[in-house]
Amino acid sequence: MALLSRFIVAAFALAATVQGAPQDLGQPGQPSSDPCARIGGQKWVAPSEVRACFTSVRVNETVKANILDVINKTLNFHTSTNYQIRAPQPFTSDVRVNLPTELERIKRQFYRSEYDFHVDLSRTLKRTNDGHAAWTFACYDSLFVNYVPTPLTLLTSPNGTQNVHISPEAFNVSSAEFPDQMDVWQNALPGRLNGQLETLSGSRVLLINGRDPFDAVNANTLITGSYQAFGTRQNAFFSSYQRGNESWNYIMGNFAQQSLPLSDTVRLTILRSNRTRPETFVLPYRSRFGSQSKSFTDTASWRANNCVAQPGTNGVDRNSNDPASRLAAVEDPMARYQQQPPLPPALAGKYPLDVLIDSSPLSNVVLPEELQPSLTAVNGSRSVSQFYLLKDGVTGILALGSFSDTDYNELHRGLLVGLLNLKSLGATRLIVDVSNNGGGYVCAAHVSLFVSFLSNLSNAIGLEWLHRIIVGPKSTSEPQAGLDTKARAGPLARSIVDELVKNPKLDPEGFLNYNPTNWRDANNVPFNASTNWLQPVVTKTVNRRPDAFSPRLGQECQPDGFPYAPPTEPLFDPKQVVIVSNGRCASSCSLFSISMVKYEGSKTVVLGGKQDVAQQYCGTVGGQSTNFRGIDTEIKTTKLKGHPLAPPDLLVNGGQGIAWRLAFGVTDREEPEEWQDHPADLNLPITAKLANNPVAIWEEVAAKLLS
Ligand SMILES: *[C@@H]1O[C@H](CO)[C@@H](O)[C@H](O)[C@H]1NC(C)=O
Ligand SMILES: *[C@@H]1O[C@H](CO)[C@@H](O)[C@H](O)[C@H]1NC(C)=O
Ligand SMILES: *[C@@H]1O[C@H](CO)[C@@H](O)[C@H](O)[C@H]1NC(C)=O
Ligand SMILES: *[C@@H]1O[C@H](CO)[C@@H](O)[C@H](O)[C@H]1NC(C)=O
Ligand SMILES: *[C@@H]1O[C@H](CO)[C@@H](O)[C@H](O)[C@H]1NC(C)=O
Ligand SMILES: *[C@@H]1O[C@H](CO)[C@@H](O)[C@H](O)[C@H]1NC(C)=O
Ligand SMILES: *[C@@H]1O[C@H](CO)[C@@H](O)[C@H](O)[C@H]1NC(C)=O
Ligand SMILES: *[C@@H]1O[C@H](CO)[C@@H](O)[C@H](O)[C@H]1NC(C)=O
Ligand SMILES: *[C@@H]1O[C@H](CO)[C@@H](O)[C@H](O)[C@H]1NC(C)=O
């Protein structure tokens, strides 16, 4: 219990730890004695009630062993396991977790409930601070989402000092999103604050639970995961925005939104605007039933609908005649945790993907109208990509919330049309806003084949396309507009490739990641079906452990991965391009930003990070991500499920993500880009006027970096 306790002590969010006496499942009893029946069918409940349900189920040792076996064996395919034991500088103090040893610890440890086990397991994986390597379990993660109506922002005052504030737009956001719960919070406010929630917006926060607000911010950095850099994990505490596929979305931040029922209340000491005396009050957290959770009425139906393995949890043999096991027909139940809009089932799993996983599904809270860009969207705008021209007439904007879309061709075309239109309107410089862009598709070697096969049902937007069309054809964009990569070459990975080389009929369409025909060598020459691309295996000692990787892989996007011919001239001078985000730009977004910055000299801005903390413009680079279900499909299709290193089928509604390919660096070409430095050029101070106001931010960035 030692490690878990340390985190509980450290984590502000765990003010309320797991409690309650576990019961045996399936025990007959009166309905009223079932703590899950109390919350079943309810929209809003108290977090303590959710915990009472969660902690009422004991660990089933068979299930626990199964989960650990699946994760342990899936991590053999994760490129970064040995690197993450101790990451190189500048991330040595951020990433230090020996997952094989930790899994052994968890295996031996006793837990009072399955929920306690899940919290420890989930946080252990999160300690990689690698958003590709998360463990998600829909039984608990965001089954109910825990909220307070006061998201926070780190504001810089006119004299330059930084303070935590209740976001100026807090009341507007909450009253629109939680109309059926505002009374509870209004009535919880004491004395003359009663019913005055609106007047809290913008207040300076002096104390959180009686302590400096940054105690809570920093405690959260230990459990939030996803990004290597400390500053980026601090930023997770605060509110932010993102361009969604249908609207401008508002991200509440980890203070106001929790994916587990961690906190029951928070005690805030604040200074309201225009007041001189601090005021202290307690606000309750309230848990709302998750938008993607399956409804239930009691323990048995909670378990059946949300906790046990679902169709799609496990991989399939793609050559099976059983129609029910056709991957194309079944959605990945864990796709909800990917930080990109969901894709049609026929396509998910098809394209090389590099995307972040988070225990909170993507936000569908809407940015208040007053803060949404009021500029006219320029032609070419669609879905997650929107184009605007600032009032100065020379600064073009591309707001890009993701690298994914339901229409592959249209999104590629939209990017080109939008940039061309900006130019024709007079733009000579470009701001790309990738706030909270959790990635998406890289590009696929076989896109053209697949697109003609499935027509326009496709979905990937190549980060490499965007780099290529902005900078034009040059040595850094043709044929490789991204970064070279390597995959891990453990014994089972090698056996999978051996089988595919021996018998190409196992995967004639090239659906499998291990199919040689999907990749090219370091000189960008395609492998043929009989090339064993993992050979000769490159052995390497990583943190004093022997490890094995594929030879270096080149690009797989050009020329046939792009649905349109790219222009022959650059669209913008890359030195007149600025990439803006809150640092939370991952995966494909990182690959794009790094290419633009390190090859082309573009500038970067992080919004409102703490002044004395180094700000990274992106994180969780990866190269290509997949998950247990994807690996299981590779294994089953090559008939290797009997291999001693093959993970068993997972018994629960969970998923384990991994980085399947890892990109090589730009500065140090022989080491992964993942743990190389990505310092932002500017940490933009956020004033009350700029907070979550994209247009005001873009104008400020243009004035500071593009004149
Ligand atoms: C534990 O889980 C296994 C697999 O789902 C199941 O067969 C077994 O009945 C469970 N044991 C108990 C005590 O519930
Ligand atoms: C993980 O797998 C290794 C063998 O590859 C084994 O030695 C170790 O005990 C396993 N750990 C767990 C927690 O099952
Ligand atoms: C800066 O301004 C804040 C309020 O805006 C004030 O609390 C603080 O004392 C000021 N600091 C200095 C050094 O003037
Ligand atoms: C909140 O909403 C009110 C009323 O619509 C509006 O006047 C105000 O500007 C909004 N404030 C923010 C910060 O969005
Ligand atoms: C946007 O994503 C949602 C799921 O988050 C999906 O239901 C919807 O169809 C998508 N809309 C568009 C226009 O792609
Ligand atoms: C605070 O005072 C300023 C100047 O008197 C005024 O403009 C502003 O509206 C006040 N803010 C609030 C929240 O009352
Ligand atoms: C944008 O497209 C619409 C219809 O496609 C067209 O009518 C309009 O003229 C275009 N506007 C610009 C500025 O190109
Ligand atoms: C995809 O749709 C576009 C129009 O949106 C069309 O021009 C193109 O031919 C379609 N591609 C395929 C492969 O059907
Ligand atoms: C496949 O590529 C290998 C080199 O990797 C070459 O030796 C072999 O002849 C090629 N086979 C075919 C059928 O083209």
From TrEMBL:
Give a yes or no for keyword Signal in this entry. yes
Name recorded for this polypeptide: Tail specific protease domain-containing protein
Which residues are the signal sequence here?
1-20
Keywords for the protein's UniProt record, in alphabetical order: Signal
Look up the domain of life of the source: Eukaryota
Q: Does the keyword Iron apply?
A: no
